[in-house]
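Would you kindly consider the sequence and fold I have copied below?
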Amino acid sequence: MAGDSRVQMDQDMEIGVTPREVKKLPKHLREAQISTERTHLIAEPAKKVRQRYVQKDGKCNVHHGNVQETYRYLSDLFTTLVDLRWRFSFLIFTLVYVVNWLFFGLLWWLIALIRGDLLHADEEGWTPCVENLNSFVSAFLFSIETETTIGYGYRVITEKCPEGIVLLLVQAILGSIVNAMMVGCMFVKISQPKNRAETLMFSHKAVISVRDNKLCLMFRVGDLRNSHIVEASIRAKLIRSQQTKEGEFIPLNQTDINIGFDTGDDRLFLVSPLIISHEINEKSPFWEMSQAQMEKEEFEIVVILEGMVEATGMTCQARSSYLDTEVLWGYRFTPVLSLEKGFYEVDYNSFHDIYETNTPSCSAKELAASLREGQLFSQLSPLTPDTKNLPLNPLSSPQLLSEPQNKKEEGEDEEGERGETNGSAATFGNQP
């Protein structure tokens, strides 16, 4: 009986239990089930976390898979070696030299073996190809001395060994090529301008606020070094999925964001931190986007700062990105530049600080329309009377007839005969 009741309880729990049967369950199970039901009823669907296209440190979050034509990497071997990680670079650097020394050491040992130098090395009057080369280890050491031009003087090649002279020439030439390639790869890898980009800063957040009666998208950039970036320029891309009118879905579509390309404002003199501004106008992808609509959108703004390193002349590129959750509406950046005695000081503690400001929540299109209407009304208001208190027939109103006459009568007292003439003309003009 106990077994049957336990089986029945298990079946009830699998199928679903009634509220009366819930009381029979343990307390923690009842609370868990009730909380789960409430969560399903009242919880709102959370916004899906967007995957970054470009990381905050500038690394692109893209992996290339299923590459069939791998031979293309070998066609550009130098770039492939430079792009490797440091641990692989050190491993290849060491292996290339060791394998090269072992290969030529084996050739020197084979020459000595074929000539019989290993067997007759101790005989008087025997001239070996390489003096004091009597084993593979000594041949390996002679290979290292030859390629690195150490020249201890204990093992030397003799003039009665033509095959050894040819091998010496081949090893010297190939050794120079290996040295040039390996040292060149290490030098380029060490002097890569990627390290220079570590001292270029981007603000953690981007903000939207009003500048000169126009909504603007802004972010801040700065350079921590005293050596400047020459010919610095900046550009921005909007990364957002798009569906065409024909139904084609374009994932991660890239759209240019104008941050001063037509006016030259994208050319920066990056001595102190600068606030980069994008005016949201008719050509902007945010033109019809209000604050409420922007909170529902999923997009990413990628910013790219390029320039030449002043010390080396190499081109440097720094990247960062802002997700839709990192674009704050109604904020501005805190000033970081202050005037001290004889110089300007930058406070990088406030580089990422922002403060809230009054900003309309409507779109830039609606803001521009309201500003145009307000400007038109301000231009027309001095020329038109108040239409709220006017009757249907303005000519029948004694107020409109008397006000111009009273004004002209005041003009008669101030201007004499000229005012009198103007007053009569105005009175004549106001007669029906």
In short: The mean pLDDT is 78. DSSP finds twelve helices and 14 strands in the chain.
